[in-house]
Design brief:
CATH topology of the largest domain: Rubredoxin-like
CATH architecture of the largest domain: Alpha-Beta Complex
Largest sheet: 3 strands, antiparallel
Distance between the termini: 56 Å
CATH class of the largest domain: Alpha Beta
Number of strands: 6
Oligomer: single chain
Number of domains: 2
Length: 129
């Protein structure tokens, strides 16, 4: 798995899986690699951080667009996200997400597509009348 170094407004650093959407309030900096490489980068710039380990307990989060992510349970849930009733290891949380997050499209896109389909159905029905 590939990771990226992220930073928030308080200039706290962390490591985040590249495949996951960044939490609100965090931005990626120009450093990607293995977890080890990212941790070494953070230590090299002289910043302390709490690295997540195999024993870290995570919480599954969802945002207003119904997109899922995981976050270390010892940290405050970022703005724009809320925790769902699932905590566990990284693998347990990712497995849970795989079960419940079956449509990767953001909620706003799903609604727009549903509305467009409804309009096309109405147009077809009116054309047949």
């Amino acid at each position: 798995m590939s990771y990226v170094v992220i930073i928030n407004q308080e200039e706290e650093y962390s490591i985040w899986p590249v495949a996951h959407e960044l939490p609100l309030g965090w931005k990626a900096i120009d450093k990607q690699g293995t977890r080890y490489e990212c941790a070494n980068y953070i230590q090299a710039v002289g910043v302390s951080f709490q690295e997540e380990t195999e024993n870290t307990i995570y919480v599954v989060m969802i945002n207003q667009e119904e997109r899922y992510s995981i976050w270390p349970a010892y940290r405050d849930v970022p703005l724009g996200w809320r925790a769902v009733d699932k905590q566990g290891t990284q693998d347990e949380c990712l497995d849970y997400m795989g079960e419940v997050w079956t449509d990767m499209r953001p909620l706003s896109l799903r609604k727009k597509m549903e509305e467009e389909a409804r309009k096309k159905e109405e147009e077809a029905k009116n054309a047949n009348d």
